[in-house]
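Quick one, T. Sequence first:
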Amino acid sequence: MIDTIVYALLFFITTCFFFCQNFNDKHDTDVIPMTSINSFIASDSVNYFRNDTIKIHFLSNYPTLRLTKEKVIGINELYKKSIDTLILSGNSKLELPTNICIYKSYIFIADPLTNQIYEANIKNGEVKVVANIFDIEQKRNQLNHPTAVWCDTLGNIYVTDAGNNRVLKFNYNKSKNEFNKIAIIVAGTMEPGEKLNQVDNPSFVYVDKRGYIYVADFGNNRIIRFPPNSTKGTYGEIVAGDYHYGSLLNQLSDPTCVIGDALGYLYVVDQGNNRVLRFPPNSTRGTPGKLILGGGHNLNIQQHLDNPSSLCLDEKRHLLFLTDSYNQRVVYSLLSGSYDQKIAQPIGDIIYNNNASVQNNSYLFGIALDSNKNLYMVDQNNSCILKIQARN
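Structure tokens:
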């Protein structure tokens, strides 16, 4: 009798074991670190495949992916393959556009050849000049080779007036629905130099949500930060690079873009070294950055960058987009989910290449995302703005 009971229990336990094992084999999901994925986009519980849902789970502040099947989202799942040219109307004509920024339904364009900043309505393509020569006698607003424009959260625009070695701020007058014609100098003294209250041929400006102003100081191979409400001659502080160009991780060579994320990390396009570096919050002079893209020696052909110019971030989907100018393409990379872990090195898919486009001899420069995740790029050689439309 006891033997019968024992055998019955053993049979029951064995049956349960095999049933559970088979169930797990069919239904268990793998956990994949974000840094091991190259070409993929994910957001909280978004269904991009027919029956496959990808979710981001935060385990000790380290995002991972749980995939119901072994599939990875490619860029073509999110963006259409066709490239559109933004049709602009009005009397204003782009000559040599460089960088752009987007605020609500407007795209702002810096054109160093016409020495003007344009505002284009994305919905109807209407273009007008919002910053050019206003006060020639005082030469206070006389732009000289403006290379970049940035919008803050209030709609004010900041302009890198490279030829005058300064950064200007044009306040938005909400009651008049226009920008003030008299600009404020928020960085630089108009004399090139290495002092912390000077800039030399600034190439880009970025303003964070707290109002701090970050300038890519091209001629001084550094990123310098100025406090909110700074004026002409205000002293800033170096947050990346040094006075001397170089290829070490604490050095820069001809930086052309700097953008920060919500956590305070700075992403810098180090054009002279053909790479993108990321610097930690509270970075100071000489702080080493971490390599995000390019710059290495053991890279395949697609991983090599050639004169990268500008970048933009899609933080919600953990993506970085970069214009790789001499390679006539835009590439993207998955941002590392954990800022203390290994950084995603592979570039991922190429989402735009001149060989597959109607544009000829493109030189892609500025890049920006609108609120609908549509991607806009400056094609400098063809003096136009290109658009890659996001899928619904």
